[in-house]
Amino acid sequence: MRDHYVHMKEVLKRYWLVACRESELGRKPVGVTVLDEPVVLFRTGQGIHALRDVCPHRRVPLSKGWVKEEAIVCPYHGWEFSGEGVCRRVPGLMDDDRCKKQIRVTALPVRVRDGFVWIKLREEPGGNEEAGGSGTKEPFDLSFLRDPSLYSFIWKVEVKGNLVNAFENLLDGTHTHFVHAGLIRTDSNRQQVSAKLTAHRDHVEIEYSGESKQAGLISQLLERDRQTSYGRFFMPGIAQIEYRSRKGLSMLITAVARPVSEAVQDVYAIITVKRGIVPNFIKRLVIAPFFKTALKQDLRIVELQQNWIERCGEGRLVSTEADLMRPFIEQLTKGRYYEKPLEREVQLLL
Ligand code: FES
Ligand SMILES: [Fe+2]
């Protein structure tokens, strides 16, 4: 997996990656780690800025400093840097004009959209991003967060696992009978489901049909009739599960990763439901505990897997046809594009 990570990092750096939510960024600077790179985010009157989180003077993290007017101040000797990373002041130096011009911190491109702050760790040379996937040009589309007919709530979890294993877990149906026994599905109560996978450029979707409501508690309590459901993986680390009834969308679960390091992902989990007569806070009160329980069960199993891999290495994994999503997540994170849509269909007992 080590080689995969080294390679994946370079691929992911070309994409817009989530740095934080807008609401997490107040007046104080915030330090985050994205693909092992320390990044500081801060607000000035001009907007939100992202710089490499290190002072070039003596390598102190700028995120431990503060914002003064349009600049971030290093907490050690007070050097000041603008949102573009240009040094504005070297306190103590009689004439700091000459050296200021040469001192810089790397500034990263920032986009603020639908309540999330996105950054890019590497710009394509000459701004030519034609070769990349859609996520290299624009941050992932979360505009459903603005849809007045939908209600979403978001929370953040830390996953101790590599990106491929974390996302395979989210999108894999075959573990749900065991890890979430009784909550999502049960082993003794399976249905034949047809799973049709389509890989497009830099995302992959599985459409599940023929499955009615599941025997698990979540399904029984929260779903009407299930018609179709979808599992999707998008570069650079976004998963989506969508349940549809005859009346349209019943629930959408979106997981957006901030890849921290090889073994850690911060994931923003967004649960979206239709607005209706039941007040939103009640919906949240009812739904959240189920998802938090399911999430805890997943976090545990992925961490067990990660610990084992760190001790003994991943080696060659044995897979079957039922592990539909895995090879595509691996390929996409290695930088492969599916120029022509690729399709695959299997029958599963879910
Ligand atoms: S380390 Fe930042 S000003 Fe000296
Ligand atoms: Fe799970």
Automatic annotation (TrEMBL):
It holds the Pfam family Rieske. Coiled coil: none annotated. GO terms for molecular function: 2 iron, 2 sulfur cluster binding; dioxygenase activity; iron ion binding; monooxygenase activity; oxidoreductase activity, acting on paired donors, with incorporation or reduction of molecular oxygen. The keyword ATP-binding does not apply. InterPro entries: ARHD_Rieske_2Fe_2S (IPR015881), Cholesterol_7-desaturase (IPR050584), Rieske_2Fe-2S (IPR017941), Rieske_2Fe-2S_sf (IPR036922), VanA_C_cat (IPR044043). Keywords: 2Fe-2S, Dioxygenase, Iron, Iron-sulfur, Metal-binding, Oxidoreductase. It comes from the Bacteria. Residues 16-119 form the Rieske domain. Gene3D superfamilies: Naphthalene 1,2-dioxygenase Alpha Subunit, Chain A, domain 1, Rieske [2Fe-2S] iron-sulphur domain. This is Phenylpropionate dioxygenase-like ring-hydroxylating dioxygenase large terminal subunit. It comes from Planifilum fimeticola.
